[in-house]
Amino acid sequence: MGILSNIFNKIFPNSDSAKKAQAQAQAQAQAQAQAQRPTAPAAPTAAPAAPAAAPAPAAMEQVDVEAILNQKLQASGQNLNWRTSIVDLLKLLDLDSSLQSRKELAAELNYTGDTSDSASMNIWLHRQVMNKLAQNGGKVPADLKD
User: Fold this and answer.
1) pTM, entire model
2) Domain residues of the chain, as ranges?
3) Which helix (H) or strand (E) holds 40?
């Protein structure tokens, strides 16, 4: 399991079960659509029947990332600035915040910059993690993402 997955699991603790439930709901909707499809008539018709529309995916409820992280911060009693620091964000989530771990996260997120320039890499990592959280159902403050 990658570092980004670990971050997701800390912020979206039920993400796997939510995905399974959504997949099951979609499968049931598709099965119902198949069952309701009329059988083909014996004689050809003038126009071909329109294909059945795929069911719309179930709306995923957004998770308020800022609220979750602020709750964790308050409970931790630590002075961490998760809003700007990838190191503090990882510490808040009880994940390895070492340089090696951040380099692994950078590789996972396809960082093309110099990993020896940890300051630039850290800024990029924080922004990318916030973007990924937003892309996967997280409500992230606009100033923390692209």
Assistant:
1) 0.69
2) 3-34+63-141
3) none
- Chain centroid to Cα 142, Å, comes to 16
Residues linked to residue 117 through DSSP beta bridges, in sequence order? none
Contact 86, 96 (CB under 8 A): no
Angstrom distance (rounded) from CA 124 to CA 118:
10
pLDDT reading at 146 higher than 60: yes
**Contact indicator for 107, 3 with CB cutoff of 8 Å:** no
Long-range contacts of 89-93 (CB under 8 A, 24+ apart): 89/7, 89/126, 89/129, 90/7, 93/6, 93/7, 93/10, 93/11
Would you say the C-alpha torsion 103, 107, 110, 114 has a positive or negative sign?
positive
Distance separating alpha carbons of residues 146 and 141, to the nearest angstrom:
10
What tens digit of pLDDT does each residue of 103-112 get? 999 999 999 9
